[in-house]
Amino acid sequence: MSYFSQRALNIQPTGVRKMFDMAGDDVISFGLGEPDFQPPPIAIEAFHQAMLDGKNKYTTTAGLPSLRKKIAEDWESYQSGMDENNVCITMSGTNALLNVFMTTVDPGKNVLIPEPYFPLYGPDVGLCGGEDRYYPCKFENEFVPSISDLENLVDQNTVAILYNFPSNPTGGTLNAKQRDDLLEFAKKHDLWIISDEVYDKITFDEEHVSFLGCDYDKIIIVGSFSKTYCMTGWRIGYLLSTNLEAMKQLIKIQYYITACSNDAMQHAVLKTMEEAGDFPAMVSEKFKIRRDLIVRRLNAIEGVECHSPKGAIYVFPKVTVPGMNSEELALELLKDGVLCSPGTAFGKSGEGHLRFAYTIGEEDISKGMDILESTLNRLRNEA
Ligand SMILES: Cc1ncc(COP(=O)(O)O)c(C=O)c1O
Hints:
The structure is a single chain. This protein has helices spanning about 5-10, 15-20, 40-50, 65-75, 95-105, 120-125, 145-155, 175-190, 245-260, 265-275, 280-300, 325-335, 360-380, and strands at about 30, 85-90, 110-115, 130-135, 160-165, 190-195, 220-225, 235-240, 305, 315, 320, 340, 340, 355. By secondary structure, it is of the alpha/beta class. The protein has two domains: about 5-40 and about 280-380, Aspartate Aminotransferase, domain 1; about 40-275, 3-Layer(aba) Sandwich (Aspartate Aminotransferase, domain 2). It has a seven-stranded mixed sheet, with helices on both faces. Strands 10-14-13 form a three-stranded antiparallel sheet. The termini are far apart. The site of pyridoxal-5'-phosphate has 13 residues, from α5. Pyridoxal-5'-phosphate binds near residues 93, 94, 118, 164 and 232.
């Protein structure tokens, strides 16, 4: 009989992928959080050119110093004085997250994680032998946690708290006061703040509020180019911290995960930042138009209630049909040609919600909303 580790046997596929794998090609897909735009042309040209120029080798573990320096400069409005020593390039935000948990979590320790959540956090903590403890981000509070809920969960074995704003799946964001309260909580309990800010440049109406630049030396930022530069398939992200001891530990661990990131790609991303630095803002403008459309359409449907998120690429409306749970509802929608994710793919408290990624054109968003409306009417009449 084949032997597999408990680690492998225990871990489960995510609910987002489950629905996606069941969907045919002809559905209107609000399923995966993947921008439909291509990266800027300069990125593709520079990638090709870098390979022609022989950039096909290992780089240093932390990545090309020039790219790391550029990333540090990119965050300068939040925190001045950083340089390449404050950045480690990773092969995606996903890689960065595993790295940061491997660096901060031991068996017997626990990490506070938002719920509804991006589905990698908890399993990643579990892979490190730690306990994932979930704090609620409630609809009533625009998906921002309350300090009293956090106080109820923290104990002497809590080593870190993960914050994710703008959030996947809720689109929730913070204002400066809320950020400061969350900062004070972490400081009070001497926790690492792991701040997943991969949607930092996809914000609407208000500027991004970062944990970087706060007066606390236990902050690690998780970054990615996947969404902001529409490079999900390239797999490039990074870790950033003003704490150089943390950087040293993170870089050590990175060696054992991927040794380093892709050489030509790092050159291409540097060129892209230099020459197409306005690309994320352009993409954000387009997402904002879609956000306005989907929120307006959702709120016009009976039994649906939706916030207007100020960031990321998702809405997480409350959708109620008597006698049906969110997974059953998502399956009914799939039968009618719309793929979305049941709220429970992001934790139990997602029950009663659906997640729509507005990563398709406006015409398809409108068609998808027409289908949602007629499916909900049909289900209510049948109930
Ligand atoms: C909140 C959040 N963090 C991290 C990631 C990982 O991004 P990537 O691995 O593509 O860089 C994602 C991807 O969907 C995400 O939504």
